[in-house]
Amino acid sequence: MFRLSQFIREIDNPTPVKPFRNPPGPVVIWNLLRKCNLGCKHCYSSSSNKDFSGELETEELFTVMEDLKSFRVPVLILSGGEPLLHPDIFKISKRGKDMGFYVALSSNGTKITEDNIGDIVAMDYNYVGVSIDGIGATNDKFRVMEGAYDAAVRGVKLCQDAGIKVGLRFTMTQDNAEELPKMLDLMDELEVDKFYLSHLNYAGRGNAAREDDAFFSMTRDAMEVMFERSLKAQRAGIEREYVTGNNDADGVFMLQWIKKHHPEHAEHMEQKLIQWGGNATGVNVSNIDNRGNVHPDTMWSHHTLGNVKDRPFSEIWSDVSNPLMAGLKQRPRLLKGRCGDCKYQAICNGNTRVRAERTTGDAWAEDPGCYLTDAEIGL
Ligand code: SF4
Fold first, then answer.
1. Separation of 216 CA from ligand 1 center, angstroms?
2. What's the number of domains the chain is made of?
3. Whose CA is nearest to atom 1 of ligand 1?
4. Is 363 domain-assigned?
5. pTM for the complete prediction?
6. 347 CA distance to ligand 1 middle (Å)
7. pLDDT in tens, 296-345
8. Residue 170 domain-assigned?
9. Looking at residues 32-51, what average pLDDT do you find?
């Protein structure tokens, strides 16, 4: 994840540069179940509205949580499917909070209602992220449910009114990219705390939708809009987070933008971006799926490192006898093509390896999702 507003803040309020370092344990994105009431076209977990067999039992989840705690995992992002459809979601959430995790809920928002908002408040979630992929009918088309937009916005408002930190998550494609400014207006209107722009990745149904991807010029335009909005909010004294995911070239693109618009800050910004360090798959970000399979991140569902029913997560995650994990943890990574020659590897860390693997069969080939020109990456 690229927290771009943190870097935008550096323009007016520079902070000291610190050395790059990894946090103690990875963030765990946990797909508690695969069932979902929506059928989103870009869903990475290919969820649908039915029960799936072989999912981890709640007691098994608790055992895994003990291991995660001792492995110093700081954050649990409870996801799905739709996590609010899990019969024990509040029991699991409460256990996570009681154990001292930062617990976030990643929801499609349509199941946040007057009936359960009291329970949601009682969980004291650190963050609730709601996915909305466009205004009104655009979202409903993506999510394949009429009324999904209204239901999700209602869910956001309920959280807002209850004082929960909430954010909008927007997965951008060619079909909804032009709605980004409207989505940012919606954030302002609802006064939500955070906006997450997720670049479409190549996994699950997203893989089949590759031709529809909004890369390159559209991505560049979108990123500039994000930078400008973030700077505007900051200068208006409004606390709002702007973050992106699934394309770590965003950090390098930001540096190019700074060089153009705020050149006096370019050197400092480059050092801050190196401190961030780019892609964290297999290092600081991990994924456990509904059946207990561990993956380097959510986009690597076709590559299983082990199962928490057979082996503790801490052992699976530390095992570098798996060549993919060894390669992901290596720094610098052994990259090829443009990524291998790129001057900004220390910022980007080779971006999203699953895109390279999906398109070439080689996880260390150049990332085809890089939207920077050769000149911009120092070639
Ligand atoms: S060439 Fe590769 S390493 Fe360089 S910015 Fe693009 S994706 Fe990142």
1. 13
2. 1
3. 339
4. no
5. 0.93
6. 9
7. 999 999 999 999 999 999 999 999 999 999 999 999 999 999 999 999 99
8. yes
9. 75
Domain assignment of residue 206, yes or no: yes
The closest residue, in CA terms, to atom 2 on ligand 1 is 339
The C-alpha angle 67, 70, 74, rounded to 5 degrees, equals: 100
From 367, 371, 373, mutation site for ligand 1 pocket: most ligand atoms within 8 A of C-beta: 367
Residue 262 CB burial class (10 angstroms; 0-12, 13-18, ≥19): middle
Domain containing 180 — which CATH number?
A: 3.20.20.70
User: Dihedral through CA 239, CA 123, CA 170, CA 343, nearest 10?
Assistant: 70
Query: Sheet containing 194-199: which strands, arranged edge to edge?
Result: 241-245, 194-199, 166-172, 127-131, 102-107, 75-79, 27-31, 285-288, 293-295, 306-307
CA 5 – CA 14 distance, rounded (Å): 13
pLDDT digits (tens, 9 = 90+) for 310-322: 999 999 999 999 9
Model confidence over 345-379: pLDDT tens digits? 999 999 999 999 998 999 999 998 898 989 999 99
- Domain membership of residue 251 (yes or no) is yes
What's the gap in Å between 277 CA and the centre of ligand 1? 12
Atom of ligand 1 nearest to the CA of 371: 6
Tokens read off for 362: 């080689």
pLDDT at 207: 53
Range of the structural domain that residue 318 is part of: 4-18+25-332
Determine the distance separating the centroid of ligand 1 and the alpha carbon of 377, expressed in angstroms. Answer: 7
Ligand 1, pocket residues at CB < 6 Å: 249, 252, 338-339, 342, 344-345, 348, 350-351, 366-367, 370, 372, 377
pLDDT tens track for 4-33: 999 999 999 999 999 888 888 999 999 999
Which of 34-43, 249-258, 284-293 is predicted with the least confidence, judged by mean pLDDT?
A: 34-43
Q: Is the pLDDT confidence value at 2 over 90? A: yes
Q: What is the distance in A from the centroid of ligand 1 to the CA of 373?
A: 10
For residue 152, give the 3-state DSSP assignment: helix
Q: Of the residues 351, 353, 371, 379, which should be mutated to test ligand 1's pocket, given the most ligand atoms within 8 Å of the CB?
A: 351
